[in-house]
Amino acid sequence: MSYKDLREFIEQLDAIGELTRVDGVDWNEEAGAVFALSKGSVLMDRFPGYPPGYRLLACPILHQKKIEGPAVFFLATNWSTEQRGMGLTRAWLERLREFKPVPPRVVKTGPIMQNVATGSKVNVLKFPVPKWHEDDGGRFIGTAGIQIVRDPETNRVNFGTYRMQVHDKASLGIHMSDGKDGDIIMHKYFKQGKPCPFVGVFGCDPALLLAGGGRTTHVEGDSEYDFAGWLRGMPEEVIIGKYTGIPIPANAEIAIEGEIRPGDTLPEGPFGEGSGYSEVRDFPVVRVKAVYHRNDPIMTGQMPLAYPPGRGDLKDNFQYSALIWDQMEKTGVREIKGVACYFGNRLIVVSIRNSFAGHSRQAGLIASQCHTGNYQGNWVIVVDERIDPTCLNDVMWQIVMRTDAKRAIQVLDYLWASHQSFFDPSRAFAKADYPMMPSKAVYRSGAIIDACVPIEQDPSWHRDVRISPALRDRVMKKFPGIRS
Ligand SMILES: Cc1cc2nc3c(=O)[nH]c(=O)nc-3n(C[C@H](O)[C@H](O)[C@H](O)COP(=O)(O)O)c2cc1C
Ligand SMILES: [Mn+2]
User: What is the domain-level CATH number for residue 415?
Assistant: First the structure.
């Protein structure tokens, strides 16, 4: 079962009992709290001060913390498996390997053009844009949307999901972390002294959201559009934007065209992030030239939640895990048996059949440095094959019982970080007595815990203490009253 657009997807969510509907929520703090406190996806309507039908779908497609099982993911990807745990990651990895680009199809017009506003009529606050968290510095749109640019050197169309703060009705802050494709492309325009043409889509189908926010890699030439089309099982229909020449999803709900001018920045934030509030910094501004939307538009959005997880099982992010596994194999790491990511990918656990001296270290270094692992991949743990990375209890046992700290831990420095990193070297550099660009000084250290038993260690030393299957069977038969 696929879906043509967000509206069809919402019907499908409803049919499997994954949708809550709430009316009369205030955009100011209430929408965020309603999403955070409710199960799964929430469709909000009748915001005070807004016409009925101007809706918000808060949908945790890429938000593992709020997801009990993968049902919504299966719906969004038009795919499913009975597998769970490491089996689910492996199944998704196999599915990813079937990827064939499904490029978008250009159409003349579509529902997104039902309402068009340009010039002085532009007003992004005609939608009930939420102030998500109590201490956010303003209202944020595009927290689950796609933001599209075109590489001026290769013409490749790129999109990602980046939050946008509403500064005023025609100005939006754009928060692209250093090193994201979107950020790199924007700076190519700036180096040429040109503004960067920009399209923001603030309500769209989940295939686009998964392609945009999923930290996918793309081989040269492919666009996230090709991935979204493949995920959905049919090409995205797109309209070429009048002001930017950028393809806009024809069946999306809300979109804007605009540009980012070199040197045009405004203070952005704070915003509640996965790691806590990210504080105020100067970020580029999109000056909006046109707003398009369907009748009764549905914004898509979501708010990150962050606090210590408590006693429940920590859920692994199988989407990132499969990507890292794939990228590790593509660089030639042998005998990978499992990958599990936690807290996004801030903790990555890899299991391997340790096959030569140096193998476990290679696996750890590549996991920490491949594209999807690199960004915020603060901690990497490598364990032996018999440890299931989706079971953190066993992973901890391996570290505590089977490693020598001095040998196991390798600290790495000057790694890819984000503006939401807890430790921020730019603060230390602010006092430097030579010219600095503090906003560029976003990097971090990281560590690998190589918890594999060293290959040269004789396995007969400290053999596992276990009850053999034969003894177990004998005793269970003889004393059936005991609990197993
Ligand atoms: C809900 C959601 C919100 C996100 N917000 C941001 C953001 O504000 N800034 C950012 O740099 N990345 C954000 N990301 C991550 C990027 O969307 C992701 O890394 C994407 O792959 C970047 O694409 P790019 O490398 O093509 O630029 C978000 C991801 C999700 C799922
Ligand atoms: Mn990209």
Answer: 3.40.1670.10
